[in-house]
Amino acid sequence: MQRVATTESSLARWLIIATGLGFLGLFLIMPLLAVFTQALVKGFAAYTDAIFELDALTAIKLTLLIAGISVPLNIIFGLAASWAITKFSFPGKGLFVTLIDLPFSVSPVVSGLIYVLIFGAQGWLGPWLAEHGIRIIFAVPGMVLATVFVTFPFVARELIPLMTEQGREDEEAALSLGASGWQAFWSITLPNIRWGLLYGVLLCNARAMGEFGAVSVVSGHLRGETNTMPLHVEILYNEYNFVAAFAVASLLALLALVTLALKSVLEWRYDYSGRGSEH
Amino acid sequence: MSIRLENISKRFGTFPALHGLDLDIRPREFLALLGPSGSGKTTLLRIIAGLEFPDTGSVYFNEEDMTDLPIAQRHIGFVFQQYALFKHMTVADNIAFGLTVRKRRNRPAKQAIAARVKELLELVQLGDLGQRFPSQLSGGQRQRVALARALAVEPKLLLLDEPFGALDAKVRKDLRRWLRDLHERMGLTSIFVTHDQEEALELADRVVVMDHGLIEQVAPPREIYERPGSAFVFDFVGESNCLPVIVRDGKIRFRDIVLNVPPSAIIEDNAQLFFRPHDVIQIENADAALALKVAQSHLRNGYLRVEGHVDGLKRPIIIDLPPGATVRPRESVFFQPVRGQLFPAVEK
User: Fold this and answer.
1) Given an 8 Å threshold on Cβ–Cβ distance, is B135 in contact with A276?
2) Is the same domain home to A80 and A194?
C-alpha cells in the first residue's frame, strides 16, 4: 500500500470507516429495511391490498396531482428567477436572492399557516372567498399553494450558480447572429443548463411528493379527499394499521431510492459534460 | 460601411466607463481600439455592436441612426474573447446558426445552408472538421470557427473582442496575418479591441488609443509611435523614459545639463521629456551628460540594453547602446538623449 503523509495508522483508519458505516447502517439502512419488512410482514397480498385500497389510491392520485401542478410551476418560476438574477442587474437583486431561500429557512408548518392566515375562514381573504364559493384551505388549491411554496427554491438554487458560471456570452453570440430572445433561450440557454435543470426538477419532485408539514396544516385531513400519501401514512399509523401504513410508506421510500439513483446518474452526466466543455 | 460615434458616454453604476467620445470609422478600415484594462475599449466595442447602450450620444452606420437598435438587428459579426461557441452543437451547426434562426421566408433552403457552411469551413481552413464539437478543437481552430460563424450572416462590419488574447504566441502571429488578409478579401470594415500594442501596430490601418474612458489619439500606427499625441500614448506604446525638465529660451535643461534635444512643443518652464531607449548617445564628458548607474545590461535585438537609475529619479531609465559599448555593473554610464518629445509636467 502506498504510504502518504496524511495516512493514519491502519487501526485508526478502520475505526473511522467502521464508525461511518455503522452510523449509515443504524440510521439509514435499518429504517429503510424496517419499512419494507413491516410492509410485507403479513405477506404480499396484504401489501397490495393496502396499496390498492380506495383511500390509498385517492391519496396516491392526489399526491401525483399536486406534484404534477407544483413541479411545472416551479420549473417556470425557477427558470424565470435564475434568468432574471444571472442575466440582468436590477436594484434589489440581493434581496431577491435571499428571498428565494426563505422556504428553506422557514419551518414547513409556518409555511402552511401563512396560507391559513391569508385564505382561511378567519383569514384576510376568507370572507370574500366564502362569498364567492371558492375553497382554498382544506382543499386541493391550498395544498398546491403550500407545496409550491415549500419546493420553490430547488430549481432556482440549482440553476443560479450554473448560469452565473456560464455567463451571458453564449446568449449574446446568439443574438448577434440575429436570433430572437426566445430562440436564444430554447436553442442556447436551455441546452446549456439541461442537466442542472433536470437535477433541480428531480429534487423538487421528491420534496413535492414527500412534503408533510405544510400540506398537513392546510389539508384538513379529509379522508379520501384531501389526504396525500404522507398524510395517509400518518392516519393509518395512528389507527394501528401498521401493515397498510408501511406499505404506503414503502412507495415513498421507493420514490426516494429512484430519485437517488437518477440523481447519481445525473451527477455523473453533469460532471462529464461539465468537464467536456472546459477549455 | 462607415461608422460615426457622437458624444458617447456610459456609466456602470457609479463607475464612468466612457466620457463623451466622438469617433469616425471609414469604410473598409481595419481599426484597433488599444488601451490598458479599464480604459473603456471593450465597452466602446459593445456599444458599437448593440450589446450595451450609451447613456448619451448616437451611433450611426452609413449615416443611419442605430443608437437604439438591438444587436440582432444591426447585421454585424461579433467575435467574443472566449469565442462563445455553442458547446452542444457541432462546428457545422455553430456556423449555420445565424442562417437557421432566420424567419422562414428569409431562410435559405437546407442544401443552400449546407453549401454555405462548407464554403465557410473552406474559407477558415477547417474543411473536414464540420462534424466535430467545439471541445474537440484547439484554441486556434475554435477562434476560426467563431469567425466563420460570424461571417455566415454576411456582415459588413466585423467586431472582435481581444481576438487573439487566448492563443499562444505562434498561433497568434499566424492568425493575425490571416485575419488581415480575410478583411481585405471580403471588403469588411473591422474593429478589434486589444491591450497588446504590438498587435495593434502590426494589424491596424488606424489605432485608437484609449485611457480612462477617453480617446487619447487616433492615428495610423507609425504616427502613434513616432508622434504620440500625449504623454500617456508615448508611455503606453513602445518603451519609453521620462525626465522632468525645465524649458527656457528654447533650451531644455535637466538640472544643470543642457540637453541636445530640439524643443518639439511650445512649452515653457516645467515639462516632461519622453524619449525612446534607442534615441540616446553615449558621451565621454561626464559634465555634459546624465549619469546612469547600471543595474544590469544584456544584448537585445543587436543592441546593448542597459537598465539603471539616474540619481534622484524614481523611475528606472532604459537605454540601448551600440553592441561594442563598455558597461560595468554598479558603475555609471554617461549619455544624452538626442530625440524626444515634450509634454506638460504632471500637476501635483
Assistant:
1) yes
2) yes
Which chain A positions have a beta carbon within 8 Å of B139's beta carbon? 279
Nearest Cα neighbor of A249 from A37, A16, A3, A29 is: A37
| B132 vs A contacts (CB less than 8 Å) | none
Alpha helices in chain B (DSSP H): 41-49, 91-100, 110-123, 139-151, 169-186, 197-203, 221-226, 231-236
> Residue A277 falls within a domain, yes or no?
no
Q: How close A192 comes to chain B (CA, Å)?
A: 7
Complex ipTM value: 0.84
Tell me, yes or no, whether A139 and A263 share the same domain: yes
The bridge status of strand B206-211 relative to strand B30-34 is parallel
Estimate to the nearest angstrom the gap between the alpha carbon of A21 and the chain centroid: 27
Chain-chain contact of B70 with A175 (C-beta, under 8 angstroms): yes
User: Cβ contacts (< 8 Å) between A170 and chain B: which residues?
Assistant: 84, 86
Within-domain flag for A8: yes
Contact criterion met (CB below 8 Å) for A85 and A161: no
Chain A residues with at least one Cβ partner in B under 8 Å: 169-170, 172-180, 183, 187-188, 191-192, 276-279
Decide: residue B131, CB within 10 A, 0-12 exposed, 13-18 middle, 19+ buried.
exposed
Taking each helix axis as running N to C, give the angle between helix A54-87 and helix A229-238, from 0 to 180 degrees, rounded to the nearest 10: 140
Q: Which residues of A fall within a CB distance of 8 Å from B80?
A: 169, 172-173
Total of domains in chain A: 2
Q: What is the pLDDT of residues A36-47, one digit of tens each?
A: 888 888 888 888
Residue B252: phi, psi to the nearest 5? -105, 125
Sign of the C-alpha dihedral computed for residues A100, A153, A172 and B143 taken in this order: positive
Say yes or no for a CB contact (<8 Å) between A175 and B71.
yes
Alpha carbon distance B149, B98 (integer Å): 7
Q: Are residues A3 and A108 in the same domain?
A: no
> Hey, of B51, B66, B71, which one would you mutate to test binding to chain A, going by the most A CBs within 10 A of its CB?
B71
pLDDT tens by residue, B250-295? 888 888 888 888 776 667 788 899 999 999 999 887 788 899 999 9
CB contact under 8 A, A180 and B102: no
